[in-house]
């Protein structure tokens, strides 16, 4: 039974269960801890307390202290021991409390986890899912707001996955945990509790009114490497992921633009077929991410579209991104690629 | 500093001038070497605490030097592992094989058969005797100078040489720099080449073993220079926090390429003493004394196996040769150091011990060395049937793209096709001459 069918059935039978993204992630972890005795969850404050964002709430109590536990404040150590655990045969799911804190663990990720299968010619593997909240929009300042996904997409041997809804978060996370390659799973923290229109000064919306907050009970997977078509349209293709999926959707709705929005969901390996099919049909491509612009993942997307769809393009590829500055605290909403910046780019593409 | 208030400037005038200390080794090329500053403890004089003792009880042993073999070539004191002569002869046989292997592979690199090699001359005991003290299925996370562990565990010499030559028999498919072995069958982790990364990995493996109620422990090796890496600090922290069944072996061979141990902090304290701050048991051991190495490794293994805690062991030794085939130590240290090293040579010391016991003689040693050289020679010939490094193109180009991920994603498929196309253009018929 497909996940979509399940969802529909659940909705129709009136047993639908609506979760926010935190609850959906918690549900995925709970299910995997239950199904696979080799899955362990560890990280700073994830044990007894249940995580600073509550994603691991109740898991230690249910699954025990040797399956779900706190770690020293050492990202190098967290990822380093996860490599060793993977070599033993476990399937660790370490949490890095904020993506901004992941840098001390980069050598263990880039040089070790990502290359272990290759360098040992499959004798050893490091199957781990590194979960980490990322992105801004919560007044987190320059150390709680970054979007460093492009650093990881540049690494051979790592998969990078970013959900944008509770339904996807659960299904993708289960796929990541079952994957035999190391995966970075970035959770857009701005939308943990509800989708975001891009207007910081409007009341926050809860997930419960969003169709993708219907999260079925039990196990289901969403395959890695497959994009989701958020809205269909002919005006242009928008390639985006994470928080920006919702901002773009809201801007398009507001402007009455019928764009085809692709939520990429997995950055590596990227769903090139979906991108090509859409851009070839619409002839225009807008790329939106919150991360800084220069050498951001948008640069890769732009190059791919230009290389592969050039003769279908009716206008230059447009990029909307964060600025090439550290994420500022008080000027957060001046930095954020919100409705104004996205709106201008859409107008430009429509004019071309 | 024009913007400094006068009062501060006046106060500053009375303060002593600060000086930066940049460590400098005692001897440079051409210098006469005098190692009298090195403490050489009395063999047999160091106490041997209970294996399950409180880590703090090992504090005196972190500044002492555990020694068993004396100048009289006999074993002394509570750390004497009391190995039978057969075991000692086996150990000597491993030493002979490691040394013969190193000699031949070094020569092979000089003859252009491969790009790189690293000898472990002078440090053989720190891997051979340690590996013999572990169970054969205890998991080893080595650095790059622990070929002795593979020799002890009976790894096929031909496989080792295939890897060194990156030839078509190399089971690592020519992906790794020579000597970066991996053998899951021998519980030997894939060698990284990045330094100290293996240390938290060993701790993680040990944690996993404990989680699963397994009985196998983990042991890791790291050079004294690499203890400066953050990974080593993480390893010590995680080891102590989770009481992981792991042994952290620090091979203090005095030199990290051209940087002496002072650049890792050796001027102020010992590497074993690092254990104290973490609450790990710590031992400082004569690394050229095969019996002391064996006994200390066994002590730590028993401790770990009994859930009594991890141990950090400093093996005090000397890197008798260059860092690698790419290094020439005459450029930065005195050639006299090797001769003057106060703890001698581990192979000679074990041999002399067996002779003193009446269990060995020079003739048998010569025969053993000859036999080891023959074995290596035969293995080399066998491996050379699979080719030497040469142009390096022994594997199908497609293998370059395999194992990056479990499955080949579209972008690697495209790149693999490109590489195959290039092969046909570069080499007529697709095969290099």
Automatic annotation (TrEMBL), chain A:
GO terms for molecular function: branched-chain 2-oxo acid dehydrogenase activity. CDD domains: TPP_PYR_E1-PDHc-beta_like. Its EC number is 1.2.4.4. Pfam families: Transket_pyr, Transketolase_C. InterPro entries: THDP-binding, Transketo_C/PFOR_II, Transketolase-like_Pyr-bd, Transketolase_C. Coiled coil: none annotated. Its cofactor is thiamine diphosphate. PANTHER family: 2-OXOISOVALERATE DEHYDROGENASE SUBUNIT BETA, MITOCHONDRIAL, 2-OXOISOVALERATE DEHYDROGENASE SUBUNIT BETA-RELATED. The keyword Phosphoprotein does not apply. This is 3-methyl-2-oxobutanoate dehydrogenase (2-methylpropanoyl-transferring). It comes from Pelagerythrobacter rhizovicinus. Keywords: Oxidoreductase. Residues 19-194 form the Transketolase-like pyrimidine-binding domain. The keyword Oxidoreductase applies. The lineage of its organism: Bacteria, Pseudomonadati, Pseudomonadota, Alphaproteobacteria, Sphingomonadales. It is an enzyme of class 1 (oxidoreductase). GO terms for biological process: branched-chain amino acid catabolic process; response to nutrient.
Automatic annotation (TrEMBL), chain B:
It is an enzyme of class 1 (oxidoreductase). GO terms for molecular function: branched-chain 2-oxo acid dehydrogenase activity. Residues 1-12, 21-31 have a biased composition (Basic and acidic residues). Residues 96-387 form the Dehydrogenase E1 component domain. The branched-chain alpha-keto dehydrogenase complex catalyzes the overall conversion of alpha-keto acids to acyl-CoA and CO(2). It contains multiple copies of three enzymatic components: branched-chain alpha-keto acid decarboxylase (E1), lipoamide acyltransferase (E2) and lipoamide dehydrogenase (E3). Gene3D superfamilies: 3.40.50.970. It comes from Pelagerythrobacter rhizovicinus. Belongs to the BCKDHA family. Residues 16-55 form the 2-oxoisovalerate dehydrogenase E1 alpha subunit N-terminal domain. One of its GO terms (biological process) is branched-chain amino acid catabolic process. Coiled coil: none annotated. Its EC number is 1.2.4.4. This is 2-oxoisovalerate dehydrogenase subunit alpha. InterPro entries: Alpha-ketoacid_DH_E1_comp, DH_E1, Oxoisoval_DH_suAlpha_N_dom, THDP-binding. The keyword Plastid does not apply. PANTHER family: 2-OXOISOVALERATE DEHYDROGENASE SUBUNIT ALPHA, MITOCHONDRIAL (PTHR43380:SF1). Pfam families: E1_dh, OxoDH_E1alpha_N. It catalyses: N(6)-[(R)-lipoyl]-L-lysyl-[protein] + 3-methyl-2-oxobutanoate + H(+) = N(6)-[(R)-S(8)-2-methylpropanoyldihydrolipoyl]-L-lysyl-[protein] + CO2. Its cofactor is thiamine diphosphate. CDD domains: TPP_E1_PDC_ADC_BCADC. Residues 1-34 are annotated as: Disordered. Keywords: Oxidoreductase, Thiamine pyrophosphate.
């Amino acid at each position: 039974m497909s996940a979509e069918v399940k969802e529909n059935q659940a909705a129709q039978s009136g047993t639908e269960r609506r979760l926010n993204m935190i609850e959906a992630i918690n549900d995925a972890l709970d299910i995997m801890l239950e199904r696979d005795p080799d899955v362990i969850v560890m990280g700073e404050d994830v044990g007894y307390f249940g995580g600073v964002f509550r994603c691991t709430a109740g898991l230690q109590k249910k699954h025990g202290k040797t399956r779900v536990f706190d770690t020293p404040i050492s990202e190098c150590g967290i990822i380093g021991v996860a490599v060793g655990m993977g070599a033993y045969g476990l399937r660790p799911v370490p949490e890095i409390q904020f993506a901004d804190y992941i840098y001390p663990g980069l050598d263990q990720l880039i040089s070790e986890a990502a290359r272990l299968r290759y360098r040992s010619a499959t004798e050893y593997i490091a199957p781990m899912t590194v979960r980490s909240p990322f992105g801004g929009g919560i007044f987190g300042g320059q150390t709680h707001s970054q979007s460093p996904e492009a650093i990881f997409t540049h690494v051979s041997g790592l998969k990078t996955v970013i959900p944008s809804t509770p339904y996807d978060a659960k299904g993708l996370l289960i796929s990541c945990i079952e994957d035999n390659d190391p995966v970075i799973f970035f959770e857009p923290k701005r939308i943990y509790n509800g989708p975001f229109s891009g207007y910081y000064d409007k009341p926050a919306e809860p997930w419960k009114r969003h169709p993708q907050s219907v999260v079925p009970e039990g196990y289901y997977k969403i395959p890695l490497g497959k994009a989701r078509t958020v809205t269909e349209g002919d005006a242009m293709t928008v390639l985006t992921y994470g928080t920006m999926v919702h901002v773009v959707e809201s801007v398009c709705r507001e402007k009455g633009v019928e764009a085809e929005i692709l939520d990429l969901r997995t950055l590596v390996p990227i769903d090139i077929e979906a991108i090509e099919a859409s851009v070839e049909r619409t002839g225009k491509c807008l790329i939106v991410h919150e991360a800084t612009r220069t050498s951001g993942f948008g640069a890769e997307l732009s190059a791919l579209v230009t290389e592969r769809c050039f003769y279908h393009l009716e206008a230059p590829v447009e990029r909307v991104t964060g600025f090439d500055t550290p994420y500022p605290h008080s000027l957060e909403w001046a930095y954020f690629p919100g409705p104004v910046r996205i709106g201008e780019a859409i107008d430009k593409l429509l004019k071309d | 500093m024009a913007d400094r208030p006068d009062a501060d400037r006046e106060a500053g005038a009375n303060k002593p001038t600060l000086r930066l200390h940049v460590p400098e080794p005692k001897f440079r090329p051409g210098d006469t070497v005098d190692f009298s500053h090195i403490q050489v403890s009395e063999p047999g004089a160091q106490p041997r605490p209970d294996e399950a003792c409180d880590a703090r009880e090992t504090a005196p042993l972190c500044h002492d030097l555990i020694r068993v073999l004396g100048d009289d070539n006999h074993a002394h004191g509570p750390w004497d592992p009391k190995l039978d002569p057969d075991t000692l002869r086996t150990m000597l046989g491993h030493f002979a094989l490691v040394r013969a292997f190193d000699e031949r592979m070094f020569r092979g690199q000089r003859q252009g058969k491969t790009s790189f090699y690293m000898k472990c001359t002078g440090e053989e005991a720190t891997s051979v005797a340690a590996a013999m003290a572990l169970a054969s299925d205890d998991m080893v996370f080595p650095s790059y100078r622990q070929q002795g562990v593979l020799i002890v565990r009976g790894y096929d010499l031909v496989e080792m040489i295939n890897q060194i030559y990156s030839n078509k028999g190399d089971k690592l498919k020519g992906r790794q720099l020579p000597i970066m072995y991996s053998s899951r069958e021998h519980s030997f982790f894939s060698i990284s080449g990045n330094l100290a990364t293996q240390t938290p990995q060993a701790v993680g493996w040990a944690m996993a073993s404990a989680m699963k109620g397994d009985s196998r422990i983990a042991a890791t090796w790291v050079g004294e220079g690499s203890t400066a890496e953050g990974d080593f600090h993480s390893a010590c922290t995680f080891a102590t926090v989770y009481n992981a069944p792991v042994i952290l072996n620090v091979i203090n061979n005095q030199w990290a390429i051209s940087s002496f141990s002072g650049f890792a902090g050796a001027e102020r304290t010992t590497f074993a003493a690092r254990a104290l701050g973490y609450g790990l048991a710590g031992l400082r051991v004569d690394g050229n004394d095969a019996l002391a190495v064996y006994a200390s490794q066994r002590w730590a293994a028993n401790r770990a196996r009994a859930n009594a805690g991890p141990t950090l062991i400093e093996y005090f030794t000397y890197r008798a040769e260059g860092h690698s085939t790419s290094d020439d130590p005459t450029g930065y240290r005195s050639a006299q150091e090797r001769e003057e090293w106060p703890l001698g040579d581990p192979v000679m010391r074990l041999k002399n011990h067996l002779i003193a016991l009446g269990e060995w003689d020079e003739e048998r040693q010569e025969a053993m060395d000859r036999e080891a050289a023959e074995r290596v020679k035969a293995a080399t010939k066998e491996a050379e049937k699979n080719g030497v490094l040469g142009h390096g193109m022994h594997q199908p180009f497609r293998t370059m793209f395999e194992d990056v991920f479990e499955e080949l994603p579209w972008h690697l498929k495209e790149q693999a096709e490109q590489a195959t196309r290039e092969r046909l253009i570069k080499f007529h018929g697709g095969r290099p001459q």
